[in-house]
Amino acid sequence: MKCAEAITIFDTTLRDGEQMPDVTFSPNQKLELAIALQTLGIDVIEAGFAASSAEEFSAIELMAIQLKDTGICCLARALRQDIDIAAQAIRLAEHTRIHTFIATSDIHMQHKLKLEPQAVIDQAVSAVKHARNLCDEVQFSCEDASRSDFQFLCKIIEKAIDAGASIINIPDTVGYALPQEFGILVRGLIDSIPNADKATFSVHCHNDLGLATANSLAGIQSGARQVECTMNGLGERAGNAALEEIVMAIKTHSRQFPYATNIKTEHLVSCSKAVAAAANTQPQLNKAIVGKNAFRHESGIHQDGMLKHSQTYEIISPQSVGWAEHQLVMGKLSGRNALLNKMNKLNIILPSESDFDDYFHSVKRVAAEQQVCDNTLIRLSKKY
Ligand code: KIV
Ligand code: ZN
Prior knowledge:
TIM Barrel
């Protein structure tokens, strides 16, 4: 049997995710989350940006010592000093990666870096060469790639690969890309850069237009074999591509995405909960896969369908991502079948069958005003 091609899942919850306003992880929280991410099956954990502070350095060092089943990556600007600190922080890891980056769009080069394009190439090349001597593998990112000149991207990436980068990351830093265009960009780079076959291409998408997952998937379909993401979509502004969405889209559409990941999907919910607790930020209720409502059904038509066959309204089984089961929620729009099902589960028996209609309507009246929990159903049944 032919094995499916692998997609590397690169998790940046502890680096880009922590860049979310009002989110900070202590070194111990980082270690706990890194262990949860390792259990989930993440291939490479971006542990942080060691040059940013002494505490960050220690947190990364701690993870590098403790985690043995996942690669440990540290971010560094394309500066010798950042790279030396990154290398020092991850030196004790089993598998080490330095991720160095520089901006490549005109707007960033002119206004932020204040550098000529050739100077940006020179800085990138010397950063990659320096990093190559200090770790197992070097990842190079062209920050703001989706708004960069295509020919310039080709040139800098070719030089970065020659200098020793074996992973080339194409970020949609400001979440500007559209899926089709982003796919064309990734394919175009892979097809045009003469030494592209010497590197794995990666995508890193932000969610400013709500397209981070779609863009990441388009990148994979165009040849990227590493995808960068965060648990719960944590990250700057509107966040990063959500790990759980990308992994479940690949799994659910295995014909369009004939790729294997190492993610043990039944750990997604527990990992999401651990990240939410440490970040002190719950995913939105209707967040795909890990939101509280992702497997809850309220309308009578849907509940009736669910009682007949769970695939009528669910494309993923809740257990496959770590929820105990789906739930039928009694609300204003709920139906009789769902109420009967709840009565069975709660062992509610009305004195006479003719009481059911009245009971059903009293439940709906309460549901129009407030949430109906199991205790409310029991209390209302006691009137009969
Ligand atoms: O969004 C971005 O461009 C980044 C880079 C550091 C890869 O996070
Ligand atoms: Zn980013």
